[in-house]
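Researcher: Here's a chain I'd like modeled. Treat it as a single chain, no partners, no ligands.
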Amino acid sequence: ARVLAVYVRERKTLTLEEAVRKMTSFPAQRLGLSDRGLLRRFSRRSPESLIIVTLGLGLCIRAMIYLTAGSKPRQFDVDVTQVYDLGIVRISLPYLINLVVAVSAIAGVALFLARTSVGKYMRAMSNDRDLASIAGIDVDRMRVYIWLFAACLAGLAGSMLGLVQAVFSPE
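Model: Modeled as a single isolated chain. Structure tokens:
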């Protein structure tokens, strides 16, 4: 990752897209994993192998974040010392923002799962994957949607944690 950072940032001989492609697709092709992704190949095997592959991909994503954003700590532009009096409750601005975002996210997830067809398919898969497949639900596509949905919620949670801690870094 550091070598690619030199080529992207300092020498500017590669674009970010080319660097990410070189870092991810070349090892996948060398291992014979050039079909629709690494996780799909291991999804039918044991859960342990899927966990190991997921951790490896997480390390690759972390390296890409370092490549693009660097390793310097950052902070939100929020005054963490500002406190609001709401009757008998005193709450600081970051916690108030987190409260509003959390309640909105919970309501949004509930509405998404209850009212959309993708949400209903996700619920059907959580009950019985084989039955959902027999019912005509594209299980592989829903698995991708579930991973994306979980990643969005994890990103939101990380942002909320960074807001409360006032300083966050890619660590």
